[in-house]
């Protein structure tokens, strides 16, 4: 029959499954076929909204500047290829999983390293919020009636992702692999089908919004010169959301099967090729189908529905309907289901990257040590829970609105891109100074050139992103990053101060001059006698039985019982005219310490062990207050002497209530008298 403790673990086991032994950590390492959906679902899924974000900006000026879209898409693809090539150098040079943080820390120093870390932590939280919100959008595109439940759907999806990741890396990888590959297949089929219809059969793909006209926003009607350049750069910055999550593979190298660096680099190349192909294809098909998508629905003249309440269909939804024959076709629902799944699962990139980075930072003492601890399934459970909590806060604060959340996006990731790439340039410079093999030097030179180009491009994009998104909400990220930076510095300073204080002194192994034991007494009953016996067994130099007089009649009765039992320790009574217990005991202990500073004081506190939560309310309150005050006194140790009440029997290793082995030896014969200020 399962014990009560086993039943208490039942909900946890239903969510997480059986715990995994530490010596089976190697079994959780990932082959490439599982690593791709786990670490690359974010950049792969960005094709579902990167094109849409470009169109949102361009249609602010009506349809006059939609001709810029293909050129902007080409620029995004070139940048994506450059960044992927750059990160292939990172995974070979720094395979330990620190990614840009480790590169920055080792090549630029602590300031740059913590800047990268704060940027990535913010970006991972935003990845979850944006991806889940975008997935919710696609669910609503297929089922518009769910629009009012947007926030609840998004929160539920975050909780589901957290539960899946808490079950373990391999288990979440298997769960996420099928939807990722279904999405890739679906988008590729849609692109090929659309091109065949346009260029082979002549049956042109036309989106539902093709007949709409777009009303330009005020101030965007006539753009030229610098204004037009800034406008195009803003659209380009929005399209750069296609690059989010590229760094996750560099942070997750330790999770790959050996050879780790080679497998990670291969997965990076696969991810880059697939993401670039799908993004370019979706953008080209959207332009062929004449898709129109605006920031404000009412800017679409001819919109079928109430523009105040009805949502626009996403670009992917419009393309699927146009390509496969309407919004009731199997192809439409397949694409919507696969897109919604991949967008939700894209958050899984952050669920792997955030805990791994948190573990590295915790190991370096910049985050709480709890983030370095693996849970039952050999995953960093605390990091997963922390990420989920912050993502839910963002979703609630921004009402799961992708357009508002996207403005906060990619600043963090391009900050880490830029600092990391310039760190790699320094890394190769240092390596070249000591390398003499000409062939190896040529490889290093090639890698340095790649990282230099990558650093230049990502730095330029970072400047563009900050300038174009700052007033639209990105300032929140630029405020959050320094706050996280300062928090990490403070945590590191605390851990350093604690470590310094704990360094053994030269006389650390010297015995104290004397030990003064104090046993707190309320009544002459079994808990008191046990505490007194334990204190005597330690053979202290001085032993004091101490009680506080809060009631004259009770104190006289206690003194009478003390003499009647002929106890071998004199009873010391402290007067308390204001009926306090804690203050007189603390003052007495302080007096003992002042009289002999080198003397160690050990306070024995009898305490009941109860079996029900409500019994804690009825007992142990004085003991808790005493311990809370005494623990701040130097040279004072507190020893809790437990006394198990009947209700606690069977709560530990016993099988149930009643007598257990050793019951008579510990003096358990019935209900003890529990009227004690210390219990």
Question: What's the short version?
Answer:
The longest helix has 34 residues.
Number of structurally distinct domains:
2
Rg, please?
Answer: 33 Å
Number of helices: 24
- Which consecutive residue ranges, at least 5 long each, have pLDDT under 50? 1-10, 21-27, 654-677
| Beta-strand content bin | 5-15%
CATH superfamily of the largest domain: Amino acid/polyamine transporter I
User: Would you count the extended β strands for me?
Assistant: 7
CATH topology of the largest domain: Amino acid/polyamine transporter I
Distance between the termini: 33 Å
CATH architecture label of the largest domain: Up-down Bundle
The order of strands across the largest sheet is: 5-4-3-6-7
**Can you tell me the overall shape?**
elongated
Overall mean pLDDT = 82
Summarize the amount of helix as a percent range: 55-70%
Task: Walk me through the topology.
Elements: H1 4-8, H2 10-16, H3 32-45, H4 50-58, H5 69-93, H6 99-107, H7 110-142, H8 150-166, H9 169-201, E1 213-214, H10 225-239, H11 248-251, H12 260-288, E2 300-301, H13 315-324, H14 330-363, H15 381-397, H16 402-405, H17 411-434, H18 438-469, H19 475-501, E3 514-520, H20 526-537, E4 542-549, H21 552-564, E5 571-575, H22 582-595, E6 599-609, H23 613-618, H24 621-630, E7 636-644
Parallel strand pairs: 3-4, 3-6, 4-5, 6-7
Antiparallel strand pairs: 1-2
Helix pairs in contact: 3-9, 3-12, 3-14, 4-10, 5-10, 5-12, 5-18, 6-7, 6-17, 7-8, 7-14, 7-15, 7-17, 7-19, 8-14, 8-15, 9-12, 9-13, 9-14, 10-18, 13-14, 14-15, 17-18, 22-24
């Amino acid at each position: 029959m399962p014990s009560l403790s086993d039943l208490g673990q039942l909900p946890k086991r239903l969510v997480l499954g059986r715990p995994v032994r530490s010596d089976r950590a190697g079994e959780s390492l990932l082959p490439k076929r599982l690593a791709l959906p786990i670490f690359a679902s974010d950049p792969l899924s960005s094709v579902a909204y990167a094109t849409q974000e470009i169109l949102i900006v361009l249609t602010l000026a009506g349809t006059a500047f939609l001709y810029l879209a293909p050129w902007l898409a080409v620029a995004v693809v070139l940048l994506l290829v450059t960044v992927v090539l750059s990160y292939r150098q990172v995974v070979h040079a720094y395979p330990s999983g620190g990614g840009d943080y480790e590169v920055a820390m080792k090549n630029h120093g602590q300031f740059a390293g913590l800047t990268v870390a704060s940027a990535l932590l913010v970006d991972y939280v935003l990845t979850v919020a944006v991806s889940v919100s975008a997935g919710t959008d696609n669910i609503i595109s297929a089922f518009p009636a769910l629009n009012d439940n947007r926030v609840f759907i998004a929160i539920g999806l975050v909780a589901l992702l957290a539960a899946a990741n808490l079950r373990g890396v391999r288990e979440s990888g298997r769960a996420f692999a099928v939807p990722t590959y279904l999405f890739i297949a679906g988008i590729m089929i849609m692109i090929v089908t659309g091109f065949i219809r346009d260029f082979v059969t002549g049956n042109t793909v036309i989106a539902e919004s093709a007949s709409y006209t777009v009303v330009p926003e005020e101030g965007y009607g006539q753009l030229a010169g610098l204004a037009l350049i800034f406008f195009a750069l803003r659209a380009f910055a929005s399209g750069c959301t296609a690059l989010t999550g590229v760094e996750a593979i560099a942070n997750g190298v330790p999770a790959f099967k050996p050879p780790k660096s080679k497998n990670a680099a291969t997965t990076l190349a696969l991810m880059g090729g697939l993401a670039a192909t799908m993004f370019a294809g979706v953008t080209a098909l959207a332009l062929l189908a004449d898709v129109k998508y605006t920031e404000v629905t009412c800017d679409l003249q001819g919109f079928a529905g109430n523009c105040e309440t009805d949502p626009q269909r996403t670009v992917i939804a419009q393309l699927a309907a146009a390509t496969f024959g309407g919004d009731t076709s199997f192809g439409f629902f397949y694409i919507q289901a696969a897109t919604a799944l991949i967008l939700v699962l894209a958050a899984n990139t952050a669920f792997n990257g955030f805990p791994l980075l948190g573990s590295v930072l915790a190991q370096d003492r910049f985050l709480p040590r709890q983030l370095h601890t693996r849970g039952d399934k050999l995953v960093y459970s605390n990091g997963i829970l922390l990420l989920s909590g912050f993502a839910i806060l963002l979703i609630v604060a921004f009402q799961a609105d992708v357009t508002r959340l996207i403005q906060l996006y990619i600043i963090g990731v391009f900050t880490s891109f830029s600092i990391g790439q310039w760190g790699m340039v320094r890394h190769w410079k240092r390596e070249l100074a000591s390398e003499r093999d000409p062939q190896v030097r040529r490889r290093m030179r090639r890698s340095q050139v790649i990282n230099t180009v990558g650093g230049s491009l990502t730095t330029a994009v970072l400047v563009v992103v900050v300038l174009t998104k700052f007033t639209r909400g990105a300032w929140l990220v630029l405020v959050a990053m320094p706050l996280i930076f300062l928090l990490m510095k403070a945590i590191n300073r605390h851990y350093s101060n604690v470590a310094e204080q704990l360094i053994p002194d030269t006389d650390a192994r010297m015995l104290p001059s004397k030990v003064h034991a104090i046993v707190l007494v309320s009544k002459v009953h079994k808990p008191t006698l046990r505490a007194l016996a334990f204190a005597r067994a330690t053979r202290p130099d001085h032993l004091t039985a101490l009680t506080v007089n809060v009631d004259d009649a009770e104190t006289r009765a206690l003194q009478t019982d003390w003499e009647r039992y002929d106890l071998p320790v004199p009873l010391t009574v402290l007067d308390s005219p204001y009926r306090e217990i804690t203050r007189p005991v603390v003052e007495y202990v302080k007096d003992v310490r002042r009289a002999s500073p080198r003397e160690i004081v050990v306070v024995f506190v009898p305490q009941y062990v109860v079996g029900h939560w409500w019994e804690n309310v009825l007992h142990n309150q004085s003991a808790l207050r005493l311990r809370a005050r005494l623990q701040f006194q130097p040279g004072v140790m507190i020893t809790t002497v437990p006394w198990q009440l009947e209700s606690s029997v069977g709560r530990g290793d016993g099988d149930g209530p009643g007598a257990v082995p050793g019951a008579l030896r510990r003096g358990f014969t019935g209900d003890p008298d529990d009227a004690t200020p210390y219990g």
